[in-house]
């Protein structure tokens, strides 16, 4: 099966799994996922599975990327903050949908590689930096949308809530361990925040500070085998 055929098959699967936002589907179709993964996994680029990218991190399953992006409800006027640049794939998807993406990564080697990929694809509306994502990006706040690609234990970081604009949406995985993680959509209202639980997921933990710049001992580790495949069922 050709790469194009695999991509078409993936798009059809995303549709059947509840991804109805045509702009999100178009962005996933336009961004070449194989660019954001190590060469040894290129044949799996359009499989609906997470894949390792080094530093103990993964590129998320396409259904999870599509679901989180759809629930972010982003448009071309929005300024978006992403916590966890990783491979750069989620940022590239967001860049097709919003005015500007600000992305923070705690692993310097991952960020440097992601920036090269984004430059090669000529994606110009993304600004990245190495920093503690739990502190947000106060110089650029407030943000219309914030997306976090690592799991908080129980509560979202206070700095991210404070940097969300009125009416803004935060999408974040939360849970004490990988067996109890869910995606939550948090909307800032006039006097409080509305919180909705969306879907079960498995993410690496959200950690503070900048990671140590140490050699990566395993470049081709196996990704977490968990795959979310059921149709989306959200609770309000």
Explain what the structure shows.
This protein has a 7-stranded mixed sheet. A two-stranded antiparallel sheet has the order 1-2. It is globular, with a radius of gyration of 16 Å. The protein contains 6 helices and 9 strands. The longest helix is centred in the N-terminal third of the chain and has 14 residues. It has a single domain, classed as Rossmann fold (3-Layer(aba) Sandwich), CATH 3.40.50.150. The chain is α/β, with parallel strands linked by helices.
Order of helices and strands: HHEEHEHEHEEHEEE
Q: Quickly name the level 1 CATH class.
A: Alpha Beta
Shape: globular
Q: SS-based structural class?
A: alpha/beta
CATH topology: Rossmann fold
Quick summary:
The chain is of the alpha/beta class. The chain has a single domain (3-200), classed as 3-Layer(aba) Sandwich (Rossmann fold).
Please supply descriptive tags for the structure shown above.
Rossmann fold; 7-stranded mixed beta sheet; 9 strands; globular; 236 residues; two-stranded antiparallel sheet; alpha/beta
Secondary structure blueprint with pairings:
Elements (H helix, E strand, L loop, with lengths): L2 H14 L5 H9 L20 E4 L2 E3 L2 H11 L6 E5 L5 H7 L4 E6 L2 H13 L5 E5 L12 E6 L9 H5 L1 E11 L7 E7 L4 E8 L36
């Amino acid at each position: 099966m050709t790469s194009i055929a695999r991509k078409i098959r993936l798009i059809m699967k995303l549709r059947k799994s509840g991804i109805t936002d045509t702009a999100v589907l178009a962005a996933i179709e336009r961004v070449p996922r194989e660019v954001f993964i190590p060469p040894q996994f290129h044949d799996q680029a359009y499989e609906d599975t997470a894949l390792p990218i080094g530093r103990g991190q993964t590129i998320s399953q396409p259904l999870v990327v599509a679901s989180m992006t759809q629930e972010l409800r982003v448009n071309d006027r929005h300024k978006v903050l992403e916590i966890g640049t990783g491979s750069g794939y989620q940022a590239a998807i967001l860049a097709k949908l919003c005015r500007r993406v600000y992305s923070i990564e705690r692993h310097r080697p991952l960020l440097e590689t992601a920036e090269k990929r984004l430059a090669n694809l000529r994606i110009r509306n993304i600004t990245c930096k190495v920093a503690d994502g739990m502190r947000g990006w106060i110089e650029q706040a407030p943000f219309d949308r914030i997306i976090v690609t690592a799991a908080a234990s129980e509560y979202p970081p206070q700095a991210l809530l404070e940097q969300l604009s009125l009416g803004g949406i935060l999408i974040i995985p939360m849970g004490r361990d990988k067996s109890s993680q869910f995606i939550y959509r948090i909307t800032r209202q006039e006097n409080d925040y509305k919180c909705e639980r969306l879907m079960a997921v498995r993410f690496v933990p959200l950690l503070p500070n900048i990671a140590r710049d140490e050699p990566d001992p395993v470049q081709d580790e196996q990704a977490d085998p968990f795959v979310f495949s059921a149709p989306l069922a959200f609770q309000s």
